[in-house]
Amino acid sequence: MSCFIHADLDAFYASVEQLDHSEYRGKPVIVGGLPGDRRSVVSTASYEARVFGVHSAMPVAEALRLCPQGIFLRGRMDRYREKSREIMAVFGSFSPDVQQLSIDEAFLDITGAQGLFGPPVALAKKLKERVRAETGLTVSVGIAENKYLAKIVSGLSKPDGLSALENGGGEAFMRALPVGKIWGAGPRTRELFEKHGLTTGEDLYRLSGKVLAAIFGDAMGLFLYRAVRGEAAAAFNEERGSRSMSAERTFAFDLYDTFAMETALFDICQDLMWRLLDCRWHSRTVSVKIRYGDFSTESGRKTFENPVRSFSELYERLLALFQQKYRSGRGVRLLGAGLMNLETQSARQGELFDGGTPQAEKERHLEEAILEINKKFPKAALRRGRSCLEDTWQKEFNH
After folding, report:
1. What is the CATH number of domain 4-8+78-166?
2. Catalytic residue IDs
3. Can you spell out the DSSP letters for 159-207?
């Protein structure tokens, strides 16, 4: 029977800062911005800060009110990516099938790995020990028969936790789960839970698929119907945690200059492309999100016939979608982009370069080579500059 691990680094950004700065250990560390920074929000709070009520996405000003003794830091993304690569390398030594969800979490298919590393719990303990020994960080893991259950189980005993769900126990587990802990139930869905007096998975289990669809809509209704039965819920998107990746930037001041916006989109695109290459996924669907100064939000997505082949192709697609959606003259406070409906390389390998050009294939291979260099030599920090659209590279150093 299939067996999966969901591995989640504990308070990742804050933990890296505590690893690098011994004087921060045991103290409330809050990564995201400094007090006084306009619009700065908390990216990660250490567990010492969380006891004061500080959490991610909270305005830094509110975090300062709750925890005035906190150590407030701006993030160091290059350092976090470096540690993430180390951790993912450890994961890869336990399973050939690692699906990285974000910089600090991944799924591992360990179905065929137990002959080498022992039963699932023994394997997970070895994985945790390796992560700590080789990176200095801790990881919480959940073990279950499908990814969806493993994701929920991994959050049961954080930090540095290990929780396992026996095969066949998914339905009973989900029926007893409070609806607030259903992964993929976003704010709108939780409002409907409260409105209809639904408090546990059991309450949802007793409703037919038609009733769930009437309350939550067809897609979410089907998702909840499957989730509370412990079934693998792979086909959920956006607030339901689809197989997608995204990145965004919040600006200290509203941007009005389109060149500045396009440069920010360029940097976001770069992050997405490296992650796409590193995970060996393909995507034909791109998305953009534009949040204006008044907090109104414009978004859109487009699916293409062929998957993204190179960085320049991804940027071209995202830029065209941005230009289509942007309301000229309005100030932008947040810009985001994403890749959706991700598929493994094997799923679409035969058509990756179908309809493409030799130049596109050449770019793809060059970018894969640059990725490997950055993995072996993290401090090299090879990145693309705007001039890459004219087939040149530049090396950026962060001091």
Report:
1. 3.30.70.270
2. 105
3. SS-EEE--TT-HHHHHHHSBGGG-TT--HHHHHHHHHTT--BHHHHHTS
